[in-house]
Amino acid sequence: MPAITVDDLTVLDRLPVPGLGDTVRPIKQIIDAPSGYEGEGFPVRRAFAGVDLRDLDPFIHMDQMGEVEYAPGEPKGTPWHPHRGFETVTYIIDGVFDHHDSHGGGGTITNGDTQWMTAGSGLLHIEAPPEWLVQAGGLFHGIQLWVNLPKDAKMNAPHYQDIRSGQVGLATSADAGALVRVIAGKVGTTEGPGSTYTPMTMVHATIEPGARLELPWDASYNALVYVLSGHGSVGIEAKPLRMGNLAVLGAGDFVTLQGATTQDSRTPAFDVLVIGGQPIREPVAWAGPFVMNTKAEVMQAYEDFQKGRLGTIPSVHGAPTTLQEG
């Protein structure tokens, strides 16, 4: 898993452990994310399937893309499609992905990079592996998270953030057995570079076998733990978790995780994505690529898309030029 690593974790800032009066977040729900396909046919796990939107707020949707080893000619992406009313956060752990949008945002991300696209009032975009990767094949693994926007920001101008792996905040657990990458928000004194409309935190942690991670967490945020690979446990209940599991946690000041003492040879550590944010607590009307507050606003988004008001496909060499409504 080549997302940014550190050879000597002891040189990093240590995260605090729970103190007197602190509460470790209890487990509300554990689900096993079902598998499916997205875009032109790349495999995904639907990380939030079966979870009440009230427990996800301010998040809407998350896919684990891969992990898959493509043969030559197999890598796939998505065709041009519209979005309005939310943000997409694409975090690539293994492989390479290109992104282009109708507002000029985009670029190439790989191995720990993040693309943070605020769709806002609306745009068209495309995500696909570069042509050389399509020809050669290779490993691909990533996450795409949809973050809702509050009503007063849904029609803001689209915006794009290009976050490189070397920019993420780095910390370690009290026992120096876990590498904590802070992509957005703040954990202890460590901050991530992601700039968000809705206050939130996004962390990718690699926990070594037997190590324990006590992750301080804003008490006003929700907390979700998704397992990218390996085995471990969550909470003071030490409920077991494995790849593809999502744990929905209750209220508290800390998220507690522990790596299993024995991991398989393919996944030598317990890798998790921990996300949480301040709930927006507004009505959600969601249909396909649009996340608004009312059905009428969703219908307006479809009309605006069909009449070309969300932008036009720019000239991008080698990119498909067909549209998908989502």
The CATH architecture comes to Sandwich
Assigned CATH class = Mainly Beta
Largest sheet, in brief, is: 7 strands, antiparallel
Number of strands: 26
SSE topology sketch:
Elements: E1 27-32, E2 35-38, E3 42-46, H1 53-56, E4 59-70, E5 78-83, E6 86-94, E7 96-101, E8 106-110, E9 114-118, E10 123-128, H2 131-136, E11 138-148, E12 159-163, E13 169-172, E14 178-184, E15 186-187, E16 190-191, E17 200-207, E18 212-216, E19 223-229, E20 231-234, E21 239-242, E22 245-249, E23 254-259, E24 270-277, E25 285-287, E26 290-292, H3 295-306
Antiparallel strand pairs: 1-22, 2-3, 3-4, 4-11, 5-10, 6-9, 6-11, 7-8, 7-10, 9-12, 13-14, 14-17, 15-16, 17-24, 18-23, 19-22, 19-24, 20-21, 20-23, 25-26
